[in-house]
Design a protein that fits this description.
286 residues; alpha/beta; Rossmann fold; DNA polymerase, domain 1; 2 domains; seven-stranded mixed sheet; binds S-adenosylmethionine
C-alpha cells in the first residue's frame, strides 16, 4: 500500500482488525479509518489506538461517512472482502452449514432480510438465478423447485431444515462442496455483496489521491472479476472508452500486478482460508 507515516488510509473491512492494526503500526501522525457493518467487529475494536477511527457502516457509504468526519481524499484503500472468521465460526450467525442454527447470514443485523426470508419469499426463478449465479450450483433449477415444494408444508428456518429439504438431491460425491455453494449464494444475496463492492469501487476515483493505492482481496471469481474490470477499464462492466489513438480514457487506476497475487503454499497450509484469496493492487493515475 506504500504506507506513508502521515497518510490517511481506509480499511473498509475491519473484521478482527488485523490489517488496520498493521497499517496503524506504520503511522506517526497518519490515520486509519476502518469500516465494518457488523456490530461484533465494532465491539471488538474498542481499543485505544490514537491512529485508528472505526465506523459502523457499510463501505458503500464511504464518501458520506468520510465527509462527515472532514475527510475528502485519502492515500489508500484496502478491502478484504467476504465474511470474517468470527462470523463464520459463530454458530448463531448462520453463515456455516456445519452448525445447526437459524438461517440468518446478515453481516449487519440492523438489516431486515435474512437467508430464511429469502428462502421463504423468493420465487423459484429468483432462487434458481441466485444459486446459479452466486453459487455456480449446477442443479440450481432442481434446488429451487425442491425449496418451493418443501416450504408449502414446512418452514425452512434453520440450516438443518435446509439440509433436510435438499438431502435427496445432494451429490454424494461432493456433499460439502454442494452445501458450500448453496450457502455462498445465500450469503452474497442476503448481504448484497456484489452491489456493495460495485458502489464502493465507483466512489474511489474521487477519493483516492494521485498515486494512492487500492488493494482488494477477494475470495470468489465474481468479486475478482468486478475488481479486475474496474482496474482495467474504470467500470465494473469492463466497458472501455478509447480515444482516437486507442488509449483507454475511462481508466482511473493502473494495475500494479497484472495477475492477482495468491497466498504461498506455506500460507495455504497454515491458513486454509487463504486458499481462494486473490489480491489485486492498483494505483490512482495522476
Ligand atoms: C474477511 S473479513 C476482514 C478481516 C480483516 N481484514 C482482519 O484483519 O481481521 C471481512 C469483514 O468485512 C465486513 N464487511 C463485509 N462487507 C462489508 C460492507 N459492505 N461494508 C462494511 N463491512 C463489510 C464483514 O462484516 C467482515 O467483518
Amino acid at each position: 500500500m506504500k504506507i506513508k507515516a502521515d497518510g490517511v488510509y481506509v480499511d473498509v473491512t475491519y473484521g478482527g482488525g488485523g490489517h488496520s492494526k498493521a497499517i496503524a503500526s506504520l503511522l506517526t501522525t497518519g490515520k486509519v479509518i476502518a469500516f465494518d457493518r457488523d456490530a461484533d467487529a465494532i465491539k471488538n475494536s474498542l481499543t485505544t489506538n490514537k491512529n485508528l477511527i472505526v465506523i459502523h457502516s457499510s463501505f458503500s457509504n464511504i464518501t458520506t461517512e468520510l465527509n462527515s468526519i472532514g475527510i475528502s481524499s485519502v492515500d489508500g484503500v484496502l478491502a478484504d472482502l467476504g465474511v470474517s472468521s468470527h462470523q463464520f465460526d459463530e454458530p448463531q450467525r448462520g453463515f456455516a452449514f456445519r452448525f445447526d442454527s437459524t438461517l440468518d447470514m446478515r453481516m449487519d443485523v440492523r438489516q431486515q432480510i435474512t437467508a430464511a426470508t429469502i428462502l421463504k419469499t423468493y420465487t423459484a426463478k429468483e432462487l434458481q438465478n441466485m444459486f446459479s449465479l452466486y453459487g455456480e450450483v449446477r442443479n440450481a433449477a432442481t434446488v429451487a423447485r425442491e425449496i418451493v415444494a418443501y416450504r408449502q408444508h414446512s418452514a425452512i428456518a434453520t440450516t438443518a431444515d435446509l439440509r433436510k429439504c435438499v438431502s435427496h438431491i445432494v451429490p454424494k460425491s461432493d456433499e460439502n462442496g454442494f452445501y458450500a455453494r448453496l450457502f455462498q449464494a445465500l450469503r452474497i444475496e442476503v448481504n448484497q455483496e456484489l452491489k456493495e463492492l460495485e458502489l464502493l469501487l465507483q466512489q474511489l476515483p474521487d477519493l483516492i489521491k494521485a498515486e494512492g493505492r487500492l488493494c482488494v482481496m477477494s475470495y470468489h471469481s465474481l468479486e475478482d472479476r468486478l475488481v479486475k474490470n474496474f482496474i482495467a477499464s474504470g467500470n465494473v462492466q469492463g466497458a472501455v472508452e478509447q480515444d482516437v489513438f486507442g488509449n483507454i480514457i475511462s481508466k482511473t487506476f493502473t494495475a500494479i500486478n497484472k495477475k492477482p497475487i495468491e497466498a504461498s503454499e506455506e500460507e495455504k497450509t497454515n491458513n486454509p482460508r487463504s486458499r481462494s484469496a486473490r489480491l489485486r493492487v492498483a494505483e490512482r493515475i495522476k
